[in-house]
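Working notes for the structural subgroup meeting. M.R. asked for a predicted model of this chain before we commit to crystallization trials. I am recording the input and output together here so anyone reviewing the notebook later can reproduce the run.

Input as submitted:
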Amino acid sequence: MKLFDNTEIAFSLKTYSELERAYFLFKMIQNQPMVRIGTAVTNFALKAHLPVEGLIRATVFDHFCGGTNEEDCLPSIDKLYTKGVSSVLDYSVEGKEEESEFDDTVTKILKIINFGQERKSIPFAVFKPTGFGRFSIFQKVTEKIVLTVIEEAEWQRVIVRFHTVCKAAFKNNVPLLIDAEESWMQGAADTLIEEMMEIYNQEKAIVFNTLQMYRHDRLEYLKVLAEKASQKGFHIGMKVVRGAYMEKERHRAKEKGYSSPICADKQATDLNYDAAIIFMMEQPNMALFAGTHNEESTYLLMDLAKKHNISKEDKRLWFGQLYGMSDNISFNLSEVGYNVAKYLPFGPVRDVMPYLIRRAEENTSVAGQTSRELNLIGAERKRRKV
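Returned structure, recorded in C-alpha coordinate form:
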Protein backbone atom coordinates (compact mmCIF):
# COMPACT_ATOMS: atom_id res chain seq x y z
CA MET A 1 0.00 0.00 0.00
CA LYS A 2 1.30 3.47 -0.87
CA LEU A 3 1.98 5.75 2.10
CA PHE A 4 -0.91 8.16 1.46
CA ASP A 5 -3.50 5.39 1.04
CA ASN A 6 -3.44 4.48 4.75
CA THR A 7 -6.83 5.74 5.94
CA GLU A 8 -6.55 4.26 9.43
CA ILE A 9 -3.68 6.66 10.21
CA ALA A 10 -5.18 9.50 8.12
CA PHE A 11 -8.47 9.60 10.06
CA SER A 12 -7.29 8.32 13.44
CA LEU A 13 -8.45 11.53 15.17
CA LYS A 14 -11.93 11.53 13.60
CA THR A 15 -14.96 10.02 15.30
CA TYR A 16 -17.43 8.19 13.07
CA SER A 17 -19.85 11.12 13.16
CA GLU A 18 -17.01 13.52 12.13
CA LEU A 19 -16.23 11.19 9.22
CA GLU A 20 -19.88 11.29 8.19
CA ARG A 21 -19.89 15.11 8.32
CA ALA A 22 -16.71 15.25 6.22
CA TYR A 23 -18.29 12.91 3.65
CA PHE A 24 -21.41 15.07 3.47
CA LEU A 25 -19.36 18.30 3.10
CA PHE A 26 -17.12 17.02 0.30
CA LYS A 27 -20.16 15.55 -1.46
CA MET A 28 -21.67 19.06 -1.42
CA ILE A 29 -18.42 20.73 -2.53
CA GLN A 30 -18.15 18.33 -5.46
CA ASN A 31 -21.39 19.76 -6.84
CA GLN A 32 -20.57 23.11 -8.53
CA PRO A 33 -24.16 24.41 -8.79
CA MET A 34 -24.65 23.51 -5.12
CA VAL A 35 -21.53 25.49 -4.13
CA ARG A 36 -22.80 28.52 -6.09
CA ILE A 37 -26.28 28.33 -4.53
CA GLY A 38 -24.85 27.68 -1.04
CA THR A 39 -22.48 30.64 -1.38
CA ALA A 40 -25.26 32.98 -2.47
CA VAL A 41 -27.63 31.82 0.28
CA THR A 42 -24.91 32.07 2.96
CA ASN A 43 -23.88 35.57 1.86
CA PHE A 44 -27.51 36.69 1.87
CA ALA A 45 -28.20 35.15 5.29
CA LEU A 46 -25.15 36.81 6.85
CA LYS A 47 -25.88 40.23 5.29
CA ALA A 48 -29.49 40.02 6.41
CA HIS A 49 -28.28 39.03 9.92
CA LEU A 50 -30.33 35.84 9.88
CA PRO A 51 -29.48 33.44 12.73
CA VAL A 52 -27.38 31.01 10.64
CA GLU A 53 -24.07 31.18 12.51
CA GLY A 54 -24.90 28.12 14.63
CA LEU A 55 -25.61 26.05 11.52
CA ILE A 56 -22.44 27.28 9.77
CA ARG A 57 -20.41 26.62 12.90
CA ALA A 58 -21.69 23.05 13.22
CA THR A 59 -20.93 22.14 9.62
CA VAL A 60 -18.44 23.86 7.33
CA PHE A 61 -16.80 26.11 9.97
CA ASP A 62 -15.94 23.35 12.44
CA HIS A 63 -14.60 21.13 9.67
CA PHE A 64 -12.26 23.72 8.12
CA CYS A 65 -11.56 26.08 11.07
CA GLY A 66 -10.01 25.76 14.51
CA GLY A 67 -12.33 28.15 16.32
CA THR A 68 -13.39 31.77 16.70
CA ASN A 69 -10.28 32.87 18.63
CA GLU A 70 -6.83 31.56 19.60
CA GLU A 71 -7.95 29.97 22.89
CA ASP A 72 -10.85 28.31 21.08
CA CYS A 73 -8.26 26.59 18.82
CA LEU A 74 -6.19 25.05 21.64
CA PRO A 75 -8.14 21.74 21.92
CA SER A 76 -7.70 21.18 18.15
CA ILE A 77 -4.01 22.14 18.34
CA ASP A 78 -3.38 19.77 21.24
CA LYS A 79 -5.29 16.97 19.54
CA LEU A 80 -3.33 17.33 16.28
CA TYR A 81 -0.07 17.38 18.22
CA THR A 82 -0.81 13.98 19.80
CA LYS A 83 -0.13 12.67 16.27
CA GLY A 84 2.94 14.88 15.79
CA VAL A 85 1.11 17.34 13.52
CA SER A 86 1.82 21.01 14.34
CA SER A 87 -0.53 23.95 13.73
CA VAL A 88 -0.17 27.30 11.98
CA LEU A 89 -2.76 29.64 13.53
CA ASP A 90 -4.16 31.58 10.60
CA TYR A 91 -6.29 34.63 11.45
CA SER A 92 -8.45 34.36 8.34
CA VAL A 93 -10.32 37.65 8.41
CA GLU A 94 -10.23 39.37 5.02
CA GLY A 95 -11.05 42.67 3.37
CA LYS A 96 -10.53 45.12 6.24
CA GLU A 97 -10.12 48.86 5.48
CA GLU A 98 -9.64 50.72 8.75
CA GLU A 99 -6.33 51.65 10.39
CA SER A 100 -7.62 50.47 13.79
CA GLU A 101 -8.43 47.05 12.26
CA PHE A 102 -4.89 46.75 10.89
CA ASP A 103 -3.45 47.61 14.30
CA ASP A 104 -5.73 44.99 15.88
CA THR A 105 -4.39 42.39 13.44
CA VAL A 106 -0.80 43.25 14.40
CA THR A 107 -1.72 42.72 18.07
CA LYS A 108 -3.29 39.39 17.14
CA ILE A 109 -0.16 38.22 15.25
CA LEU A 110 2.13 39.31 18.10
CA LYS A 111 -0.02 37.23 20.45
CA ILE A 112 0.35 34.21 18.14
CA ILE A 113 4.16 34.71 18.05
CA ASN A 114 4.13 34.55 21.86
CA PHE A 115 1.95 31.45 21.67
CA GLY A 116 4.50 29.94 19.29
CA GLN A 117 7.37 30.71 21.60
CA GLU A 118 5.61 28.91 24.45
CA ARG A 119 4.33 25.90 22.51
CA LYS A 120 6.22 23.49 20.27
CA SER A 121 2.89 22.64 18.62
CA ILE A 122 2.74 26.16 17.03
CA PRO A 123 6.05 26.45 15.13
CA PHE A 124 5.05 29.38 12.85
CA ALA A 125 3.03 32.57 12.81
CA VAL A 126 1.33 33.80 9.62
CA PHE A 127 -0.36 36.90 8.21
CA LYS A 128 -1.67 38.32 4.95
CA PRO A 129 -0.13 41.59 3.70
CA THR A 130 -3.60 43.14 3.38
CA GLY A 131 -4.15 42.35 7.06
CA PHE A 132 -1.69 45.23 7.68
CA GLY A 133 -2.87 47.75 5.07
CA ARG A 134 -5.50 48.46 2.45
CA PHE A 135 -5.43 46.39 -0.73
CA SER A 136 -5.56 49.56 -2.85
CA ILE A 137 -2.42 51.01 -1.25
CA PHE A 138 -0.49 47.81 -2.07
CA GLN A 139 -1.88 48.00 -5.61
CA LYS A 140 -0.79 51.62 -6.06
CA VAL A 141 2.74 50.89 -4.83
CA THR A 142 2.89 47.82 -7.10
CA GLU A 143 1.78 49.87 -10.12
CA LYS A 144 4.26 52.63 -9.16
CA ILE A 145 1.52 55.25 -8.92
CA VAL A 146 2.74 58.35 -7.07
CA LEU A 147 1.17 58.42 -3.62
CA THR A 148 -0.43 61.50 -2.10
CA VAL A 149 1.06 62.84 1.15
CA ILE A 150 -1.71 61.10 3.13
CA GLU A 151 -1.18 57.81 1.25
CA GLU A 152 2.57 58.01 1.78
CA ALA A 153 1.99 58.30 5.53
CA GLU A 154 -0.39 55.34 5.31
CA TRP A 155 2.21 53.24 3.44
CA GLN A 156 4.84 54.10 6.07
CA ARG A 157 2.47 52.74 8.74
CA VAL A 158 2.21 49.49 6.75
CA ILE A 159 6.02 49.25 6.70
CA VAL A 160 6.16 49.85 10.48
CA ARG A 161 3.59 47.05 11.04
CA PHE A 162 5.70 44.65 8.97
CA HIS A 163 8.81 45.57 10.96
CA THR A 164 7.02 45.25 14.30
CA VAL A 165 5.92 41.70 13.57
CA CYS A 166 9.14 40.54 11.83
CA LYS A 167 11.23 41.91 14.69
CA ALA A 168 9.08 40.04 17.26
CA ALA A 169 9.37 36.84 15.20
CA PHE A 170 13.15 37.26 15.06
CA LYS A 171 13.43 37.99 18.78
CA ASN A 172 11.26 34.99 19.76
CA ASN A 173 12.77 32.69 17.12
CA VAL A 174 9.32 31.95 15.63
CA PRO A 175 9.41 31.82 11.80
CA LEU A 176 6.80 33.98 10.06
CA LEU A 177 4.90 32.93 6.94
CA ILE A 178 3.59 35.84 4.87
CA ASP A 179 0.80 34.84 2.49
CA ALA A 180 0.64 35.79 -1.18
CA GLU A 181 -2.40 37.53 -2.65
CA GLU A 182 -3.55 38.81 -6.06
CA SER A 183 -0.82 39.51 -8.65
CA TRP A 184 -1.76 43.18 -9.07
CA MET A 185 -0.83 43.97 -5.45
CA GLN A 186 1.89 41.36 -4.91
CA GLY A 187 4.83 43.40 -6.24
CA ALA A 188 4.69 45.82 -3.30
CA ALA A 189 4.42 42.93 -0.83
CA ASP A 190 7.39 41.11 -2.45
CA THR A 191 9.63 44.18 -2.22
CA LEU A 192 8.68 44.79 1.40
CA ILE A 193 9.22 41.13 2.36
CA GLU A 194 12.62 41.09 0.64
CA GLU A 195 13.63 44.06 2.81
CA MET A 196 12.50 42.13 5.88
CA MET A 197 14.46 39.03 4.80
CA GLU A 198 17.60 41.11 4.33
CA ILE A 199 17.33 42.40 7.90
CA TYR A 200 15.95 39.42 9.83
CA ASN A 201 17.22 36.39 7.85
CA GLN A 202 20.95 36.95 8.34
CA GLU A 203 21.51 33.73 10.29
CA LYS A 204 18.57 31.59 9.14
CA ALA A 205 15.15 31.94 7.56
CA ILE A 206 12.74 33.69 9.93
CA VAL A 207 10.70 35.67 7.38
CA PHE A 208 9.05 33.55 4.65
CA ASN A 209 7.40 34.92 1.52
CA THR A 210 4.91 32.82 -0.49
CA LEU A 211 5.24 31.77 -4.12
CA GLN A 212 2.02 30.95 -5.98
CA MET A 213 3.24 28.57 -8.67
CA TYR A 214 0.16 28.88 -10.86
CA ARG A 215 1.89 32.12 -11.88
CA HIS A 216 4.29 31.32 -14.70
CA ASP A 217 6.72 34.10 -13.66
CA ARG A 218 7.39 32.91 -10.11
CA LEU A 219 10.23 30.48 -10.80
CA GLU A 220 12.20 33.26 -12.47
CA TYR A 221 11.42 35.54 -9.52
CA LEU A 222 12.80 32.89 -7.13
CA LYS A 223 16.02 32.56 -9.14
CA VAL A 224 16.57 36.33 -9.20
CA LEU A 225 15.93 36.46 -5.45
CA ALA A 226 18.44 33.65 -4.90
CA GLU A 227 21.07 35.79 -6.67
CA LYS A 228 20.28 38.78 -4.45
CA ALA A 229 20.41 36.63 -1.32
CA SER A 230 23.80 35.20 -2.20
CA GLN A 231 25.18 38.71 -2.96
CA LYS A 232 23.75 40.26 0.22
CA GLY A 233 24.24 37.25 2.46
CA PHE A 234 20.74 36.49 3.73
CA HIS A 235 18.68 33.31 3.89
CA ILE A 236 15.47 32.79 1.94
CA GLY A 237 12.34 31.35 3.50
CA MET A 238 9.59 30.39 1.05
CA LYS A 239 6.18 28.86 1.39
CA VAL A 240 5.50 27.30 -2.01
CA VAL A 241 1.85 26.77 -2.99
CA ARG A 242 -0.08 26.35 -6.21
CA GLY A 243 -2.34 29.37 -5.58
CA ALA A 244 -5.81 30.42 -4.49
CA TYR A 245 -7.08 33.15 -6.83
CA MET A 246 -7.02 31.48 -10.25
CA GLU A 247 -10.53 32.31 -11.46
CA LYS A 248 -10.19 35.91 -10.24
CA GLU A 249 -6.78 36.34 -11.94
CA ARG A 250 -7.98 35.01 -15.30
CA HIS A 251 -11.18 37.04 -15.17
CA ARG A 252 -9.33 40.31 -14.46
CA ALA A 253 -6.72 39.69 -17.17
CA LYS A 254 -9.48 39.09 -19.71
CA GLU A 255 -11.52 42.08 -18.53
CA LYS A 256 -8.56 44.48 -18.65
CA GLY A 257 -7.02 42.99 -21.79
CA TYR A 258 -3.60 41.92 -20.53
CA SER A 259 -1.88 38.55 -20.74
CA SER A 260 -2.92 36.29 -17.84
CA PRO A 261 -0.15 35.63 -15.30
CA ILE A 262 -1.60 32.14 -14.72
CA CYS A 263 -0.13 28.98 -16.26
CA ALA A 264 -2.01 27.62 -19.27
CA ASP A 265 -3.27 24.51 -17.48
CA LYS A 266 -3.02 22.31 -14.39
CA GLN A 267 -0.11 20.31 -15.81
CA ALA A 268 1.96 23.47 -16.41
CA THR A 269 1.25 24.57 -12.82
CA ASP A 270 2.32 21.16 -11.48
CA LEU A 271 5.57 21.27 -13.46
CA ASN A 272 6.22 24.82 -12.26
CA TYR A 273 5.58 23.81 -8.64
CA ASP A 274 7.92 20.83 -8.87
CA ALA A 275 10.62 22.94 -10.58
CA ALA A 276 10.49 25.41 -7.67
CA ILE A 277 10.91 22.74 -4.99
CA ILE A 278 13.71 21.04 -6.97
CA PHE A 279 15.53 24.40 -7.21
CA MET A 280 15.03 25.20 -3.53
CA MET A 281 16.22 21.82 -2.29
CA GLU A 282 19.53 22.39 -4.07
CA GLN A 283 20.19 25.64 -2.17
CA PRO A 284 21.75 25.38 1.31
CA ASN A 285 20.58 28.87 2.37
CA MET A 286 16.87 28.27 1.73
CA ALA A 287 14.09 27.00 3.99
CA LEU A 288 11.01 25.50 2.36
CA PHE A 289 7.46 25.27 3.65
CA ALA A 290 5.76 23.13 1.00
CA GLY A 291 2.07 23.90 1.09
CA THR A 292 0.57 21.17 -1.05
CA HIS A 293 -2.34 18.75 -1.31
CA ASN A 294 -0.71 17.07 -4.30
CA GLU A 295 0.55 13.58 -3.51
CA GLU A 296 2.99 13.37 -6.44
CA SER A 297 4.72 16.63 -5.43
CA THR A 298 4.92 15.36 -1.85
CA TYR A 299 6.52 12.06 -2.90
CA LEU A 300 8.96 14.07 -5.07
CA LEU A 301 9.92 16.25 -2.11
CA MET A 302 10.52 13.19 0.08
CA ASP A 303 12.83 11.81 -2.63
CA LEU A 304 14.65 15.17 -2.92
CA ALA A 305 15.20 15.29 0.84
CA LYS A 306 16.81 11.82 0.69
CA LYS A 307 18.91 12.77 -2.34
CA HIS A 308 20.27 15.92 -0.64
CA ASN A 309 20.74 14.22 2.75
CA ILE A 310 18.22 16.49 4.48
CA SER A 311 16.99 14.68 7.58
CA LYS A 312 13.28 14.39 8.35
CA GLU A 313 13.75 16.51 11.48
CA ASP A 314 15.56 19.36 9.66
CA LYS A 315 13.57 22.53 10.41
CA ARG A 316 14.41 23.94 6.96
CA LEU A 317 11.82 21.58 5.48
CA TRP A 318 8.13 21.55 6.38
CA PHE A 319 5.08 20.05 4.71
CA GLY A 320 1.79 21.92 5.15
CA GLN A 321 -1.87 21.22 4.40
CA LEU A 322 -5.09 22.98 5.29
CA TYR A 323 -7.07 21.85 8.30
CA GLY A 324 -9.94 19.61 7.18
CA MET A 325 -8.22 18.54 3.97
CA SER A 326 -5.65 15.95 2.84
CA ASP A 327 -5.38 14.26 6.23
CA ASN A 328 -4.00 11.25 4.35
CA ILE A 329 -0.91 13.34 3.50
CA SER A 330 -0.50 15.16 6.84
CA PHE A 331 -0.90 12.26 9.25
CA ASN A 332 0.96 9.65 7.21
CA LEU A 333 3.92 12.04 6.73
CA SER A 334 3.96 12.78 10.45
CA GLU A 335 3.75 9.07 11.26
CA VAL A 336 7.03 8.47 9.38
CA GLY A 337 8.74 11.43 11.07
CA TYR A 338 8.52 14.49 8.78
CA ASN A 339 7.81 18.05 9.98
CA VAL A 340 4.13 18.62 9.21
CA ALA A 341 1.83 21.54 10.01
CA LYS A 342 -1.84 22.13 9.41
CA TYR A 343 -3.00 25.65 8.53
CA LEU A 344 -5.64 26.25 11.18
CA PRO A 345 -7.89 29.20 10.21
CA PHE A 346 -9.73 31.02 12.98
CA GLY A 347 -11.82 34.15 13.52
CA PRO A 348 -15.44 35.17 14.10
CA VAL A 349 -17.75 32.99 11.99
CA ARG A 350 -19.11 35.79 9.79
CA ASP A 351 -15.65 37.31 9.25
CA VAL A 352 -14.14 33.99 8.18
CA MET A 353 -16.90 33.18 5.65
CA PRO A 354 -15.15 34.85 2.66
CA TYR A 355 -12.16 32.57 3.32
CA LEU A 356 -14.37 29.47 3.59
CA ILE A 357 -16.28 30.35 0.43
CA ARG A 358 -13.00 30.75 -1.47
CA ARG A 359 -11.91 27.31 -0.23
CA ALA A 360 -15.15 25.72 -1.43
CA GLU A 361 -14.89 27.40 -4.84
CA GLU A 362 -11.23 26.44 -5.14
CA ASN A 363 -12.04 22.81 -4.37
CA THR A 364 -14.68 22.64 -7.07
CA SER A 365 -12.18 24.01 -9.61
CA VAL A 366 -9.35 21.56 -8.72
CA ALA A 367 -10.08 18.42 -10.67
CA GLY A 368 -9.76 15.25 -8.62
CA GLN A 369 -9.12 16.83 -5.20
CA THR A 370 -12.64 16.39 -3.87
CA SER A 371 -13.06 12.92 -5.43
CA ARG A 372 -9.86 11.81 -3.72
CA GLU A 373 -11.13 13.10 -0.34
CA LEU A 374 -14.44 11.27 -0.84
CA ASN A 375 -12.75 8.01 -1.86
CA LEU A 376 -10.49 8.07 1.19
CA ILE A 377 -13.35 8.88 3.60
CA GLY A 378 -15.44 6.17 1.94
CA ALA A 379 -12.62 3.63 2.36
CA GLU A 380 -12.26 4.52 6.05
CA ARG A 381 -16.03 4.24 6.66
CA LYS A 382 -15.94 0.79 5.07
CA ARG A 383 -12.87 -0.24 7.10
CA ARG A 384 -14.56 0.71 10.38
CA LYS A 385 -17.73 -1.19 9.53
CA VAL A 386 -15.83 -4.44 8.95
